[in-house]
Structures are given as structure tokens and as C-alpha cells.
Write a structure and sequence with these properties.
Layout (H helix, E strand, L loop, with lengths): L4 H17 L3 H7 L5 E6 L6 H5 L6 E6 L9 H13 L4 E7 L3 H7 L7 H4 L1 H9 L1 H5 L4 H22 L1 H8 L5 E8 L4 E9 L13
Parallel strand pairs: 1-2, 1-3, 3-4
Antiparallel strand pairs: 4-5
């Protein structure tokens, strides 16, 4: 007896709809995936990557974790990054956070949450570096939203600092790294005006020759 039979029913309905709208879609998809985009986003269930940008399966390569962090000790994330760049030859990496992120909020609430407290240390460091900016923000929602934005910008930097991305640029591969944020309140994306397309656009300290 399937305890989640309704999910299988949903799957069959979804597959029939896709096939009806695009005959032969799954047969073509099974032969290859050739996405132009890598999405690095939050694990939050309210932020469905493909649906937000209106892309079908096979068009968006996705990595998700709590608070959309890119840690240089996270071999899961780095493996996804390398596969996307070296094998799939994606042209765009999108780091997408979202307003009201529970991970970002947890980093600041001084409560003990368990193992994840270690994971969120980088967000505390981002807050510390920008603490002066938060002094004038008395509204808690505004403070959280601004930290969500700053976190995206920092993770864009982390992507660009990797040897994986810099090696791609060094061999002339077309690759852009973008910073976006999503609002659950209205379903819309905001471009944070962060786009890095080459090594010359990052701090000299992090450039690898």
C-alpha cells in the first residue's frame, strides 16, 4: 500500500499534461540535458526554481541548500558547480536568495538550533562586516530583507572566487554569475544588479593566475 499514492497520481497527471503539450518531450529529454543555467538557491519549499523562471525540466541545473550558501568546504556544492561548468557548459550561474529566509533569520536570533548553527556562521560574519548599515534600520523585516540581499551578493563573490569558475574564465569560456532575490509575497524576482563576467571584476586578492 502506497502511503503517498496522491503524489504518484499527481506525477501521472503532470507527465500526461507535459506530453500532451509537447509530444515526445520525455523521449528527447532522456537523451541529453543541455541547460544554459545553474541555479544556486535556498531549500525553502516555497521557492520552486523551475517554476519561478518558467523553465521546463532539462533547462535549469539546480543546487539548493539552507540559505543558498556557497561554502568552499562544501564538496557537494563545488561538485555541482564543476559539473555544471566543465561538463554541461552552462553560461549563467544564478545565485538566488529570498526575502524572509528562515536560515538568515536563524543566524541572528541568538537561539540554539543544532548542527545548522555551524552552517550559518558565514551569515553572521556578513552581518558583522556590514553592522554599521544595520544601525539605522529599526524595522526587523527591513533588517532581515537587507541581510538576505547582502547574503546573495556575498555568495556571488564566493562562486567567483572558486578555482572552478576562474579556470573557466582563463580558458575563455563564456560564464556570467548573477545575484537575484525572490519575494514570496508577490512571486517576483528582483535583480540585485550583481553580474560578474570575468576575473578582472573581482577583488585582486582573490584572483588566481
Amino acid at each position: 500500500m502506497k502511503l503517498l499514492s496522491h503524489l504518484f497520481d499527481n506525477n501521472q497527471s503532470w507527465a500526461r499534461t507535459i506530453e500532451a503539450e509537447n509530444p515526445g518531450f520525455f523521449q528527447r529529454l532522456a537523451k541529453q540535458q543541455a541547460p544554459e543555467y545553474l541555479w544556486i538557491g535556498c531549500s525553502d519549499s516555497r521557492v520552486p526554481a523551475n517554476e519561478i523562471v518558467g523553465l521546463l525540466p532539462g533547462e535549469l541545473f539546480v543546487h539548493r541548500n539552507v540559505a543558498n550558501l556557497v561554502m568552499h568546504t562544501d564538496f557537494n556544492c563545488l561538485s555541482v558547480l564543476q559539473f555544471a561548468i566543465d561538463v554541461l557548459k552552462v553560461k549563467h550561474i544564478i545565485v538566488c536568495g529570498h526575502y524572509g529566509c528562515g536560515g538568515v533569520k536563524a543566524a541572528l536570533d541568538h537561539q540554539k538550533h543544532g548542527l545548522i548553527d555551524n552552517w550559518l556562521q558565514d551569515i553572521k560574519e556578513i552581518y558583522r562586516r556590514h553592522e554599521a548599515e544595520f544601525t539605522g534600520l529599526t524595522d526587523e523585516t527591513a533588517r532581515l530583507d537587507r541581510l538576505c540581499e547582502l547574503n546573495v551578493v556575498e555568495q556571488v563573490n564566493h562562486v567567483c572566487y572558486t578555482t572552478i569558475v576562474q579556470d573557466a574564465w582563463a580558458r575563455g569560456q563564456t560564464l556570467s554569475v548573477h545575484g537575484w532575490i525572490y519575494s514570496i509575497d508577490d512571486g517576483l524576482l528582483r535583480d540585485l544588479d550583481v553580474c560578474v563576467t570575468g576575473k578582472d571584476q573581482i577583488h585582486p586578492l582573490y584572483r588566481i593566475r
